[in-house]
Specification:
Keywords: Signal. The protein has about 300 residues and is of the alpha/beta class. The protein has helices spanning about 1-30, 45-60, 70-80, 95-100, 130-140, 160-165, 185-190, 200-205, 215, 235-240, 260-270, 275-280, 300-305; strands at about 35-40, 60-70, 85-90, 110-120, 130, 150, 175-180, 195-200, 220, 225, 230-235, 250-255, 285. Helices cover about 40% and strands about 25% of the residues. Strands 1, 2, 3, 4, 6, 7, 8, 9, 12 and 13 form a ten-stranded mixed beta sheet that branches. It has a three-stranded mixed beta sheet with strand order 5-10-11. α2 links the parallel β1 (about 35-40) and β2.
Length: about 300
């Protein structure tokens, strides 16, 4: 009788635990503003995305894990389904788009701003100008006298791919070209070696890591003369906005999750008012410049009469 009497209570307890267990499980599922997701990020854009992710996580019940790699490594991970959210300085190419088409996934591409490729040299070189034509000739292996050597971050990086496409070559030349792993390594090498020209993502120069701040003081950011221009233009926010700097590149968040997850929520955040203000503060060009409210105060009629 005693066991029989306790059965209803055991049953009620079981239903209670089952109900709240299911509710908890549902609450942990990923949505556009909560849950956990991994985002693949181009190494040249690391400082900017660190800021965007920090502010996004502070505002929502979400945790974003950032994996920073070179562009080539990113795309390998992206296509292997390591993550279906990637931040790039280019759109998907035809082959990559077809791959997701076969999976019946339609990529959602959100443009979030404009960055640039920047050329740097040691301050001791006393030269702050460079012609893009000379850089291209050097990469093509053709004779010229202005460029002694180029320094890249990584053979698989977006900066190398960008410059190769510009020069019409498939691989960077082996002679006179140096490569490391990260942008900060390029800055360090250029700062300590006269005559070298470094090729880096502009974001690293506007938002240097603490261990780079002293190195930044030892380099010049070069103004560049485009192939069809007579003027030397610096990679500033204003020149990006006016379209006069010849090495500008748009930035994209590409989401191939195939469902309404954090990829969609994060892309909307970065493309929204707060995310665009972060891009503006980072020294890059947002897609939409956040508006500023200006309040004009006028003297009251009563005050004017007393005066």
């Amino acid at each position: 009788m005693k066991n029989f009497a306790t059965r209803p209570y055991v049953l009620i307890l079981f239903i209670f635990l089952l109900f709240f267990g299911c509710k908890k499980s549902e609450g942990e599922k990923e949505s556009i503003l909560k849950g956990t997701a991994t985002i693949l990020v181009d190494e040249t854009l690391k400082p900017l995305l660190e800021d965007e992710i920090t502010i996004f996580q502070n505002g929502y019940n979400a945790k974003i894990l950032m994996e920073v790699r070179s562009e080539k490594e990113l795309m390998q991970a992206f296509l292997r389904d390591t993550s279906r959210i990637v931040v790039l300085s280019r759109k998907l190419n035809e082959e990559e788009s077809k791959y997701f088409e076969q999976l019946k996934i339609k990529p959602k591409t959100t443009i979030i701003g404009t960055d640039a490729i920047a050329f740097i040299s040691s301050k001791s070189t006393n030269d702050s100008l460079v012609a893009l034509k000379d850089i291209i000739l050097f990469m093509q292996g053709k004779p010229q006298t202005r460029v002694k050597g180029l320094v890249f971050d990584n053979p698989n990086s977006s900066t190398v791919r960008y410059m190769n496409e510009l020069a019409g070559i498939k691989e960077i030349p082996s002679e006179g070209v140096y490569s490391f792993k990260f942008n900060k390594d390029v800055v360090k090498f250029v700062a300590e070696n006269d005559g070298m020209i470094g090729v880096v993502g502009l974001n690293w120069l506007y938002q240097p890591s603490p261990d780079m701040k002293d190195l930044i003081k030892k380099i010049n950011v070069l103004s560049v003369k485009g192939e069809s221009s007579a003027a030397y233009v610096a990679p500033t926010q204003n020149n990006l906005a006016e379209g006069t700097y010849p090495l500008a590149r748009d930035l994209y968040i590409i989401n191939c999750q195939g469902y309404s997850g954090l990829g969609m929520g994060f892309a909307s955040f970065v493309a929204g008012d707060i995310g665009q203000r972060i891009i503006l503060k980072a020294g890059l060009l947002p897609v939409r410049v956040p508006p500023r409210k200006v309040i004009f105060k006028t003297k009251s009629k009563k005050k004017n009469e007393n005066e």
